[in-house]
Amino acid sequence: MVSWRPETRLEWFFFGTTTVQAFTNITIQTVILVTYLNWVNSVAYQVPISYVIPLTLCVNSLGCLFQIILTLDAYRIKNHIQVFVQCAANICLSISTVLQYGETRHAVSRILVNHDRYGTPFADVDWPFWKKISPGLMVCTVVTCVSSAIMCWLARGLYREFSWALYQHVSPDKKIQTKYAVYQIYLVLLKFTPYFVFAFIIFYDFIDVHFQEPEFSLTLSIIPATLVHVAIAVYFVRHERRIGMAFVLLLHAANIAYLISRLLVLYGHSFLADTLLKDEMVFYLCVGVVFSTSALLAGCVCFYNFKKGLRPILLGQVQRKPRAHELEDDYYVQRLNYNVVPLADRDSQRFALD
């Protein structure tokens, strides 16, 4: 049975760090969101400025929750590559939390001086909203930055614990090990890229495009399309289907082209270039381009490695004969195909590559 539970002391410390970060940020930002909804008047929702604070709070909270899920997933497959990428992602989350503080302060100042055409203010100007929430945002910033530092420090120890597991049950052949490492890198990038792309799309669609059709619906449709893209990418790369993988790589290139086109729009001369949350949009956009480009490159290398001895390992068709005085468990089968083959069915199988 696949285990998501931390086992070693370092695993518990790493999981505890991401859990404390998520619990602190989500709790504080939920309180801020409820306070904000009680502070603003309904007329404020007619303009994009009213969406800035709720969107930044939700995106940041989802990022912290996503980190917990990825931590448990890394323990499930004992992947040190994913731990390192997770540290990089958490640093990006720290930067976005710093940007969130400034964007929230700017949004509050804009809301306080605005009103609708009938003179109804956007919010209760007599209540010190910013004074009440700014300490909470500062706590979120400090917690996220400290968590990133602790995660990077713990990642070194987890590397020593996980590194043997990535290759021990793959093959003694160094070339096969290298191909398998690229495959693992590609899968990790597929997990992390959607968050940054989705964060940008949410900000861009609700703040900049702001319900203008047909761009609003077309942009929003990228979210389910990306999820389908990830699913077929995992299937085709594991089963080494050349035509399907070529289509997946084409979609990677299309995603990069779209993100770059939005970057040109944000720095262009159209009305979309003059937008709220521009710094945060550009940040998520740039990170999304980096992750998407890295996924494209890793996918191309995987495509090049098709039909070169890795497919039987990825599908769990290659089993390892235990050495003398060695206890065999279901762990390595979980790493390769996530399906546990009963030990009784594996006793007579040999480790061999097709």
Helical percentage: over 70%
Supply the helix-strand structural class. mainly alpha
DSSP, total strands = 0
Q: Tell me, rounded to a whole number, the average pLDDT.
A: 82
Secondary-structure map:
Blueprint: H1 9-39, H2 49-77, H3 80-112, H4 129-167, H5 174-209, H6 215-220, H7 222-239, H8 242-266, H9 278-304, H10 311-314, H11 331-337
Helix pairs in contact: 1-2, 1-4, 2-3, 2-5, 3-4, 3-5, 3-9, 5-7, 5-9, 7-8, 8-9
Structural account:
By secondary structure, the chain is mostly helical. The protein has two domains: 1-168, no CATH class; 170-315, no CATH class. The protein has eleven helices and no strands. The protein has helices spanning 9-39, 49-77, 80-112, 129-167, 174-209, 215-220, 222-239, 242-266, 278-304, 311-314, 331-337. α2 packs antiparallel against α3 (80-112) and α3 (80-112) runs antiparallel to α9 (278-304). The chain is flat. The two termini are 27 Å apart. Mean pLDDT is 82; it is low at 319-354.
Quick description:
The protein is mostly helical and 354 residues long.
